[in-house]
Design brief:
single chain; 24 strands; disordered C terminus
Length: 686
């Protein structure tokens, strides 16, 4: 980590990325300071950027972040849509520019962690807007915790009961979608108050929650309501409720009770107004203010809400500039902002699984355990607790890796030998690899992984060092000839590597013969602990999921789904296959992810070239991967199989692997949320 150097006398040069509604707050805040100057704005809609620059008398308007970063900035304010924050922040860090980012820091935990790491490595500051921490009422409660008036919090309550009209969601196509909003009331509204609750109560140990959509289901695919019980590492407990289905709005209330027995509560009503302390109960006295003053309109517009928050935006921007001048940390760092994201993602995860989500060690109870005599009077059922899911400290909740293995297919880096592939996979964050134990074409580099070979020893050594495993081996094209000797050698290598499946494709036009071949392979595989998996390949005789599943059931083997061939199959189309896929989930042990354009290449030769060297990063194309993933079990292992000669040459092997892992994380997050909301048909249509 590089320590940022303070900036002293000269005015700080500011750039604003994104000219949507919230950018006004950033523009007003920086304009209110004497020692900053806004030198440029950018937006993908150049006209909007130019209009903003003209209205605010800003010298430059551009439509790319790179152009904005080229203006010798000291700070870039990120006001772009939630899922784009990472891209902007990483570019800024690479350019040595400090970042002040709108909330949420990201919609995927792994993205937030990459952003924090990139800024640390580059020696630049990363602040995230949680301006409600700057309310005088919030500061008063924080001080009372620290000075002992409240003392260590033991109980908390957070109620976020807000009103949104359907038009709020329908006026922008991205609102209320998992892909572009990242979530509903939790991600967009309640995250501010989750941050406050956590700031008061401390680090979280466990979350148990539920989400639902009660009012806005015709306009959104995310939740409009949520509830949760949160346990903190101190042993403290709190409840959370949040909704945008309330009419009229009830605003926000946050209450904290400390170990001294004293309590304090603040209210934000109507939404966007300054938080006020409505309850102060300490030293034997209680003072209160009305939570709902008479004559106040409970439902206010988004423009009014944002406008009323400008003074607190300004306070946080001033704090960030102070940290630039003095060399200290801003009041809300990227690491701080990640805590609120982790909590709300845990609510989504808990709602999906029906289980509590834990972070780090179990909290120690503040009360002694039940005495034996009391415990003995409890029935066995009353002492039963739900199974707790433990999550590592650097949690990857809702990125997929917290609950399913993610692998890197050999085809993604075909010219990388298995020992090196294991090391790259580990550094990129993958759990397993697929190993190419037999070349498919005469031009491929062969890898000798037979028992006793030096490459096998090296691969096993790297696996032991990194914890990366081999789940599948490949590849055998079944053409109707006698290939038993070939598959037996492959199974020997696979057994030595600890693999459980061998991927094959059906090039034999005789279905009965192919079934017989696979049946013999399946029988042989039992002795090695390896099951053949038949892959439907769009330019081979077995081209569809339905064909592969029918053959596999008769042969007693399984199938692997590759999203390229899933989308390139030209018999009935991907939409029909998606319906079929849900019927065959019991046959699928592995899903291979890549992406690409919706248009199918025009010839078989072009299909082969695309398949072997021109695939795209998951989530960057038009394959509708979220629907495919959401149609399959949530615990299903996935593998990134996306060869791209051009991108590997540009990024290097590790760079390409990391980009693939990031893409897979994003797709899995969106699929998890689609499963959670039950909107599989909507995801398929998209």
């Amino acid at each position: 980590m590089t320590t940022p150097s303070p900036v002293t006398a000269r005015p700080l040069r500011i750039g604003i990325a994104g000219c949507g509604a919230i950018s006004r707050n950033h523009l007003e805040a920086f304009r209110a300071l004497d020692d900053t100057v806004i030198v440029g704005v950018c937006d993908i809609d150049l006209q909007r950027a130019e209009d903003t620059a003209k209205a605010w008398e800003i010298p430059a308007a551009v439509n790319t972040v790179q152009e904005l970063l080229g203006m010798d900035l000291d700070i870039i304010s990120v006001c772009t849509p939630h899922p784009t924050h990472e891209e902007v922040v990483l570019q800024a860090a690479a350019a040595g520019v400090n970042v002040l980012c709108e909330k949420p820091i990201a919609t995927v935990l792994a993205s937030a962690e990459r952003m924090v790491q990139a800024c640390d490595d580059a020696g630049v500051k990363l602040g995230v807007l949680f301006q409600r921490r700057f309310w005088p009422a919030a500061q008063r409660i924080r001080i009372a915790i620290d000075d002992g008036t409240l003392g260590r919090p033991v109980m908390g309550q957070c109620s976020v009961m807000l009103h949104r009209e359907p038009e709020y969601y329908s006026r922008d196509v991205w609102r209320g979608t998992w892909a572009n909003d990242g979530g509903g009331v939790l991600m967009t509204q309640a995250i501010h108050y989750i941050d406050l609750l956590q700031w008061f109560m401390g680090d979280v140990a466990e979350v148990y929650g539920k989400i639902n959509t009660y009012k806005h289901g015709e306009h959104i695919e995310v939740e409009d309501s949520a509830t949760a019980v949160i346990t903190f590492t101190s042993g403290a407990m709190a409840t959370l409720e949040a909704s945008t289905a309330v009419s009229p709005s009830l605003g926000v209330q946050i209450r904290v009770t400390g170990e001294t027995g004293a309590s304090a509560s603040l209210t934000e009503f109507p939404e966007g107004s300054d938080g006020r302390v409505d309850l102060w109960a300490a030293a034997g006295t209680i003072s209160t203010e009305p939570v709902y003053p008479e004559g106040v309109d409970p439902n206010v517009s988004l423009t009014t809400i944002n406008g009323q928050l400008i003074p607190h935006h300004t306070a946080q921007v001033r704090d960030f500039v102070r940290s630039m001048r003095g060399g200290g940390e801003p009041a809300v760092t990227g690491q701080d902002a990640t805590k609120a994201l982790r909590i709300l993602l845990a609510v989504y995860e808990s709602s999906r699984t029906g289980l509590p989500v834990r972070f780090g060690p179990r909290p120690h109870p503040t009360n002694p355990p039940l005495r034996r005599s009391t415990a003995d009077r409890l029935s066995p059922g009353s002492r039963r607790h739900p199974t707790l899911r433990t999550v590592p400290e650097r949690s990857t909740i809702m990125t997929g890796t917290a609950r399913r293995p993610i692998g890197l297919a050999q085809l993604s880096l075909l010219n990388t030998a298995p020992p090196e592939l294991v090391g790259i996979a580990a550094r990129a964050g993958f759990d397993f690899i697929g190993a190419r134990v037999r070349p498919v074409t005469p031009t491929e580099r062969p890898y000798n992984l037979q028992p006793g070979s030096p490459m096998l020893r090296d691969t096993l050594s790297r696996m032991q060092d990194t914890g990366v495993t081999v789940r599948d081996i490949e590849f055998l094209l079944l053409d109707g000839s006698d290939q038993r000797e070939a598959w037996l050698r492959m199974m020997e290598a696979g057994q030595a590597l600890g693999a459980s499946s061998l991927t094959v494709a059906g090039a034999d036009p005789d279905s009965a013969r192919l079934i017989g071949t696979l049946a013999r392979m399946t029988e042989d595989g039992r002795g090695f602990g390896i099951t053949p998996t038949l892959e439907a390949i769009s330019y081979q005789p077995v081209a569809s999921i339905a064909q592969a599943a029918d053959i596999a059931r008769q042969a007693g083997c399984r199938i692997v789904v590759d999203t390229l061939h899933f989308n390139r199959y030209n018999g009935r189309g991907a939409a029909a296959q998606w319906e079929e896929l849900r019927a065959y989930t019991d046959l699928v042990p592995l899903l291979q992810l890549c992406d690409g354009p919706a248009e199918r290449p025009g010839s078989r030769e072009e299909l082969v070239i695309e398949s072997r060297s021109e695939r795209g990063v998951p989530g960057e194309g038009e394959f509708g991967l979220v629907a495919v993933v959401a149609a399959l079990p949530a615990s299903l292992p996935v593998s990134a199989e996306a060869p791209s000669d051009r991108r590997v040459a540009e990024l290097g092997e590790l760079g390409w692997a990391r980009l693939l892992k990031s893409g897979v994380d994003t797709v899995l997050t969106q699929a998890d949320r689609t499963q959670l909301s039950g909107n599989l048909d909507t995801a398929a249509a998209k």
